[in-house]
Hints:
With 131 residues, the chain is mostly helical. The protein has one domain (2-123). The protein has helices at residues 2-10, 18-27, 29-36, 39-42, 52-60, 84-88, 101-118; strands at residues 45-47, 121-123. The two termini are 14 Å apart.
Amino acid sequence: MAAVATVEELAPDAGDDADQGQAELVKRYATVRPFLAVIADVLPLAATPAGTALLTAVRGLGSLVGRKRVTPSEIVDEVVTGTWRRLVFPGPESPDEIVDHRAYTLCVLESLHRALAGHGAVPAPGAGVTD
């Protein structure tokens, strides 16, 4: 569960300026990168119907590792909300509508952290994890 501990350590407090905190998280991408290829395997998760998009996004993070160019069709747009949109989608001047996969990754991990705390995503039955 080192990945969860790392996300908890890096996630900004609710009192932080959201834009500033999220931009700082993106700078820490290298810290979580080693966990991305295995996070869906290590964290056996299930989701409520509202958490299905997030679970799909978490399971897709491993495919983004080492990529230089990621397009909007390769990510789950539904999980990119609020101030994360500005960081993930740099703007119309971006060539070929490339997204910042580092910002997307941290957005997904922050959303997973919030979902686990609020039970929008839960350990799968039989995973041996309890509250």
